[in-house]
Amino acid sequence: MKNITSLDHQIYTCIFNIFPSGPFEKEINLNVYVPPEVSVFPDVTPVVGDSEVILVSCIATSRPASEVTWNLGDLNSSLKIKTDISAGPNDYYTVSSRLIGVPSKELNEQNVQCVVNHTSLKKEIVLNYALVIHYPPQIVYITSVNPPTTHQEFLCIAVANPKPTLYIWSRENKALTGRVDFDRLEIQLNSDSNGLYKCNASNQYGNGVGTLQMQFSTDISPDCTTCWILFTTLIVLNVAAFFVWRFNLCSKQIFDLREGSW
């Protein structure tokens, strides 16, 4: 038979006649191997705080059944594997292998591999998958963005998955002054800036709060721009001095060359 397809997977009967004995029949079972179709996906997105759940599933459909295994690396002792095989029409089989574990922040973005072997394959199929675990903001902190001048800009950073969708800035026992832009806060530096600042970051699973104690000393001029002007001026003077020195050196070398040529 030529140009065989998966539809040719049948039992065929060969009938032939031998004189004078008469007709003979012979059944031929034609097995057509069908390579596996493989997919890796989470049933639902695991969330920190859940008990044991299915973290990810690897499904392979083929004829005959495939062998499905996992490469888990360091996660081998912390995850369980459950594999089921179901038969379909025309001798197709679906192998479902699932990773089961307790969701944690540490599992998020950990790499696992689903490995599929089949009679029709010369080389195994390896599918990489990075585990996705959702969790509320667990670490929130406030950091400065720019060198202090007359104003200071702060950024609220939150470790969460997915990223926070809401940031609420506040100031303990005082009204919040300054300009708020989502996860950023810009305030003017003066004696009234002192106090405890808070950033409340949240996503659909919860929230976390970061704090920053601002203590501005009145002994230091609030206008630090002067410092930066002096610093910049010093750099300019040094660069200018360097070019003057190079110019004088080149002039002397040219003069010496001219003297030598006479």
UniProtKB/TrEMBL annotation:
Q: What is the lineage of its organism?
A: Eukaryota, Metazoa, Chordata, Craniata, Vertebrata
Read off the Pfam families from this record. C2-set_2
**What SUPFAM superfamilies would the database entry show?**
Immunoglobulin
The protein's location, in the record's own words, is: Membrane
Keywords assigned: Cell adhesion, Disulfide bond, Glycoprotein, Membrane, Repeat, Signal, Transmembrane, Transmembrane helix
Q: Primary place of residence?
A: membrane
GO cellular component annotations of the record: adherens junction; membrane
The record's section on PANTHER family has: NECTIN-1 ISOFORM X1-RELATED, NECTIN-RELATED
Q: Which organism is it from?
A: Astyanax mexicanus
Q: Which GO terms describe its biological process?
A: heterophilic cell-cell adhesion via plasma membrane cell adhesion molecules; homophilic cell adhesion via plasma membrane adhesion molecules
Sequence similarity:
Belongs to the nectin family.
**Domain Ig-like spans what residues?**
36-126, 137-217
Protein name (Swiss-Prot/TrEMBL)? Nectin-4-like
Q: Where are the transmembrane segments?
A: 228-249
